[in-house]
Amino acid sequence: MVPEIKIRPAESGELEVLADLYEKLTRDQAAYDQAAKLQTNADFKTLVQGFLQSGNNKFFLAELDGKPAGFIRLNIYSGPNLEKVDPEAAKPPWKKFTPRRALRKILVLILDWLEKPLDTPMLFEQLRLGYIADMFVEAEARKKGLGTQLVQRALAWFKENKIDLVYLHALSGNQVGVSFWQKQGFSTYRLGLRKKI
Ligand SMILES: CC(C)(COP(=O)(O)OP(=O)(O)OC[C@H]1O[C@@H](n2cnc3c(N)ncnc32)[C@H](O)[C@@H]1OP(=O)(O)O)[C@@H](O)C(=O)NCCC(=O)NCCS
């Protein structure tokens, strides 16, 4: 039987599904990085809730035969700043008002103002870029094309948002991930190096 694959935007109520996939992704990736030690009380629901509420993230879910089996998380950067991409989450500021938030906002404004004279000059033009922040397909759903379809949907969404350059990070030990991205037409433009001292 031909598997039925569907790609759709994730709904804000799908916190549990996304948190479950997120936990699997994190455990999977931690295995490629000897320096990564997962907290015993890592809270994936709160993490994903933060992503959804910020309005800075676009999630697409991949379904295999009607069941969620993968996701991709996307951002848009204008220079160093994240753009709001989810109008649902980007509620009018008065709906989000709390004294704590107001105080934090004031502090941030004061700090920004104090830091102004220290601004370094911009050497490069500030590009508007698409960023693939995370992507995961359940182990039993792999090699069926879900990953490819998620990426195609992501690239179409970036195009709709007038983006023509998309980047991501991959762990160098993740050979499957690196081969996957190469198959999607991505190539290495930067290397991260480190040394244990
Ligand atoms: C990487 C990942 C998203 C691929 O998802 P997928 O649904 O299996 O991908 P597809 O079926 O669309 O595969 C597309 C191509 O990727 C490459 N690929 C996928 N799995 C591969 C594997 N195990 N070994 C080598 N190449 C592989 C192949 O070129 C494949 O094309 P082919 O089927 O014509 O050979 C999935 O393996 C995954 O979730 N891995 C764990 C999380 C992860 O690494 N995320 C990326 C972080 S950078």
Characterize the structure shown:
There is one protein chain. The protein has one domain: Gcn5-related N-acetyltransferase (GNAT) (Aminopeptidase). It is built from five helices and six strands. It has helices at about 15-30, 45-55, 100-115, 145-160, 175-185; strands at about 5-10, 60-65, 65-80, 80, 130-135, 165-170. Strands 1, 2, 3, 4, 5 and 6 form a six-stranded mixed sheet that branches. The model has no long low-confidence stretch (mean pLDDT about 90). Coenzyme A binds next to helix 1, strand 5, helix 4 and helix 5.
What do the pLDDT scores average to?
92
Compounds present?
coenzyme A
Uncertain runs are: none
CATH class: Alpha Beta
Give the CATH topology: Aminopeptidase
The CATH superfamily is known as Gcn5-related N-acetyltransferase (GNAT)
> Helical percent range?
25-40%
Give the gist of this structure.
About 35% of the residues lie in helices and about 20% in strands. It is α+β, with helices and mostly antiparallel strands and about 200 residues long.
Key descriptive features of the protein:
197 residues; alpha+beta; Aminopeptidase; 6-stranded mixed sheet; binds coenzyme A
